[in-house]
Batch of 2 targets.
Target 1
Amino acid sequence: MAQLLFKDVNKVYPNGYHAVHDFNMEIKHGEFICLVGDSGCGKSTTLRMIAGLEDITAGEFYIDGKLANQMSSRDRGIAMVFQSYALYPHLTVAENLGFGLTLEGIDADIIDERVAATAKILGLTDYLERFPRQLSGGQCQRVAVGRALIRKVSIFLMDEPLSNLDAKQRVTMRSEIKQIHRSVGATTIYVTHDQTEAMTMSDRIVVMRSGGYVQQIGTPYELYFYPKNLFVAGFIGEPPMNFIRGTVENCHFKTETLDLDISPIVKDAKALEGKKVVFAFRPESIGVYGAEKKGTAKEEGYVISSKVDLTELLGDTTNVYANVGNVNVILKVNPHHTPEMGAEFKFVIPHKAAYLFDAETEEVIESGIERH
């Protein structure tokens, strides 16, 4: 296990492109950290700086209290799993697993022991004599993870390792990687563009935005229920959070079709007079008015009238694409309470599930509400 510390770390390329801005974070021993964000946000660049594959332009990076800016990759105690499996096609699974140890000059008997132990952990014992072309994508990925695991390093770096797998394989590998992390205990930094992977696997998540700006660092629970700004609120959650823009007048959120008293959801509604704001709620937080126990009374939340444009039955839930005034929203409802397409219907947003953001700064307006 290892402890990592970033102090105002920046990466600027020779052409002037500023890929990472003032990255500050402390990663504890044995933590599983996910870096997420859209393309070009600097998450892979940050990973490469940790690995020593990219120079740090400014700032300080420490591994176990030692300044690592100029430390060689070999001395950092790091193993990396890439998006591509990068297996040697002419070597068997056993030879691929033990290749790094062979280069280090480790005794063949010790290599055989480690290969056998690693294969057992990853369920590869029956495939040790096979070649990569004889394996499935999930099995190849397990070999790639095993090649890092066998070195017994203190830091694992993973750069979108599941992106080449199909949906079923990704679900399986997510749980396997998490179980491996629990058994090995190495500090793990995992890069992905898939927020579902981040939510299900990580102890904490770093949400980054284009240009290399960190937006929020927190547990999956914190990011989901307490997003600090519009970007995080829209990035975390599937389908994404719904946003409706309007203005505060006399402690009410107003649009052409909505007039909602915001006093129950903000600390000081009067201080927002005349401010342009964004009213937000998650698709799964609503209830169909009059159909479910949750949200059947008006005083429990905001009752909104809408018109159904489209429905998608997913089995356990139904996605309802609706229109509120001139704003499109997505709602998740009980499939037994799915309204007809084209129908007018009402849904309820509980007060504790409603958010308000400053339209100019995009920062959340504090409410003091406990959300769960």
Target 2
Amino acid sequence: MTPFIDWLYNLPLIKWLNELGPRFYRAFVEGDRWKLYLQGLGVTFEITAGAIVLGMVLGMTVAMVRTAHDQQRPGRRNPALGLVNAVCKVYTTVIRGTPMMVQILIWAFVILKTSRNKPLVGIIGMGVNAGAYIAEIVRGGLMSVDSGQSEAGRSLGLSYFDTMRFIIIPQAFKNILPSMGNEVVTLFKDTSLVQAIGATEMTYYAYTLGGKTFDYMPPLIGIAVMYLFFVVILTWLQGKLERRLAQSDRR
């Protein structure tokens, strides 16, 4: 048995597995390095939340403008609304047509090059990017609601914004929920891009600690598991909300 055990322990796979424990210990436990990952996780959540809020504000505004423009009656076009709509179209085209990484770098090293608050720069860059996609998601949801609903609201004396608020948006929300949930998940994962500008989120610490220990595999695998864990939770929450809305429709 001894020669067999010696042979088994000398197998490359077994030796590699035996080395995993000390490698993960150095990456996460030694020197209380796990605290840095938690600190980076907090920054990740901060950037995600800020980008979602900014993206929702921009996206809803652009979607409302573009929907109002598209729903104008022939012969009753508003020139000012047409100009604002053209600006919104340029915004969505440029943002959706260029990589997020390039946009973040432009915000960090061109537009806000004097700012030392890198998480805030990341929030602005990612929020502006998310706004373009959210605008198209919301606009598609608003346009999916039958136009008769809007006309009914206006016939009751409601203003355009009240009609949107009380009639159109509640119906459109159910249609856009899956796409909006996917956008939130994408934003959470894309926070890893802001490490390129020095924002101290999870990927930044994983890369930094990997350089200190000369072993990048454990920290990178570790944060990948962390990302996956929270993505699964977000996906579960999205599915639960969708099922609850579906149940309310059947009642």
